[in-house]
Amino acid sequence: MLTLGINYSQMHDSSACIVRDGELLFAVAEERISRLKHDAGFPQLAIRACLDFAKAKASELDEVCFGWPAPGALFRHDLKCYVTGGMRATRANLLNSTRYYASMRHQQGGAKVFARLFGAVKARMRYVDHHLAHAISAYAYSGFDDACVVVMDGRGAWEATSIWRGHDGRLDHVLTIPFPDSVGLFYSEFTEFLGFQPNSDEWKVMGLAPYGQPGLDLRRFIDVETTPYRVRSQTVSSNGLPFAAMTAAFGPQREPESEISSRHKNLAYSVQEACEMAMMNVVKLAVEKTGSRNLCLAGGVALNSKANGKIAASGVIDKIFVQPAASDDGVALGAAMAPYLDKGGRLPNKEMRHAYLGPSFGDEAIESALRTYKIRHNRVSDPAAAAAEFLSGGKILGWFQGRMEFGPRALGSRSILADPRDPEMNAKVNNAVKFREWWRPFAPSFKRDAAAEYLESATDSPFMILTAQVRPEKRAVIPSVTHVDGSARPQTVEKEINPLYWRLIDEFGKRTGVPVIMNTSFNLRGEAIVHTPTDAIRTFFSSGMDALVIGSFVVEKG
Ligand SMILES: [Fe+2]
Q1: In whole angstroms, what is the distance from residue 169 CA to residue 31 CA?
Q2: Do residues 132 and 107 touch, judged by C-beta distance below 8 A?
Q3: How confident is the model over 197-256, as pLDDT tens digits?
Q4: Are strands 124-127 and 468-469 parallel, antiparallel or unpaired?
Q5: How far is the CA of 302 from the centre of ligand 1 (A)?
Q6: CA 301 / ligand 1 centre spacing (Å)
Q7: Cα of 264 to ligand 1 centre, how many Å?
């Protein structure tokens, strides 16, 4: 069976993946190919890339699976919210809901666009409930037979949070908390109030939080004492109106790009703390309801690595798997597996150990690009050793190798790398390369076998989706990847999974005694992570990177 999974909602992060006989072959977000960050358009380039990788024609597909229910479900829930007072029935809101419904209905949720672009196909068009798709994306890739599955996002069609029990390849629905009682909504509205882009910059709030102090009262916005949590959506949501309740409580909304004051830091602290408590509250409920202490997490809220790290270290659960593409790009992975649940069937359940699911470019394509742009380059016999040499000499390095990662993090295929021992490196990379906010921490890549020497927990963490405390005696050893609160967001790298990247870290360790690399995504601020050699070359020359190791080639500046 050949199935295509698609995320298309016109909201954010369109993506596609392809699965053959239960095996995930390939996955890519539309933004990487279109170069439009969080691209919400129909993922036609991603679908084309999936078919090319599988060497299949659209006509050979058996199922085309969207990670959203058929158009109408979301509209009906909106109407219900307007009637019950969950959302304000303003003219603008009603118009938005109606317009969205009309557009998705006209496109048959994307099926009509698919047929126009790829021709008539025999495949069944399947619409998978959004939270079910998220739940499958966590459970079916966890390797856990028995699991409690928690999905938390901004919204699905009607869902905001859901709990499932996974067992024997099946998923039983346990409970759903409907939108707008949504922790994702709570966090994204405060993200916007703090002057950042909602559904995109939540990371910035999380990074800012440790610089603040506790003490702000958020009970008008969220109640984290009750189980499950309650979000006061009428006070939280701007709903097209200015942030009246937030302004009354915390002063005016922050202007984007304006200075960050202690007021903003303290608010970030309290928002993050409330999110962590709400998540913990749901996880405890999920463990109680399902009787399982193996936790699977997905949904945009599960990108909150700080909260995930606290849950992992809490003792409430034994094991945790967070789908690395926890946001809506990942529903493609779940939707594509949904047909396996038909007729009492079971989901294939293979532990996802890496996210190298995207396109790759061989040396021939890379050299052709370098020649086209008349860029002086050298071929090296050992790119890992060459890279380690640059890094130990304090250089900031572009690293472009193998298949691109799926999900928001760069994990050693499309990465900017640097020496984590230099306390100034954070500022250097920020100023020269990322042009991003000073308070956002960079993350470390460890050899997995060396992680326990540096970290108190999360020593098996391949996806940078859990934070852990760096051991106190090691904080000064890797200062540029240790956050102000002593935490780090590690990637542990296994030799068997990514031998080239593992060897780079190993070679760096041989030269410096520290088998840890600072790893951030290969992109400039506000841009999608690089996809092609041309993207990499353009980004390299638009920034303060010193060298680029791309396939078997090295490019140096100056
Ligand atoms: Fe979602």
Answers
A1: 32
A2: no
A3: 998 899 999 999 999 999 999 999 999 999 999 999 888 886 666 688 999 999 999 999
A4: unpaired
A5: 10
A6: 9
A7: 27
CA of 53 relative to ligand 1 center, distance in Å: 26
Which structure tokens are listed for 459? Answer: 């020593």
- Of 69, 130, 56, 66, the residue nearest 336 (C-alpha): 66
CA of 5 to the centre of ligand 1 (A): 14
Distance 335 CA to ligand 1 centre (A): 12
Is the pLDDT reported for residue 133 higher than 70?
Answer: yes
Does pLDDT of 282 surpass 90?
Answer: yes
**What DSSP state is assigned to residue 253?**
P
Please state, in angstroms and rounded to a whole number, the distance separating the CA atoms of residues 471 and 452. 9
- Report which of 349, 351, 303, 305 is spatially closest to residue 327, judged by C-alpha positions: 303
Beta pairing partners, 63: 3, 124
Per DSSP, the residues of 94-137 read HHHHHHHHHHHHHTGGGHHHHHHHH---SSEEEE--HHHHHHHH
Residue 546 has a pLDDT of 97
Could you tell me the distance, in angstroms and rounded to a whole number, from the CA of residue 154 to the centre of ligand 1? 7
pLDDT digit string, tens, across residues 369-383: 999 999 999 999 999
Q: Please tell me the distance between residue 69's alpha carbon and the centre of ligand 1 in angstroms.
A: 12
Q: What is the mean pLDDT of residues 135-153?
A: 97
Rounded Cα distance, 332 and 28, in Å: 10
Please state, for a pLDDT cut of 70, what percent of the chain lies above it.
99
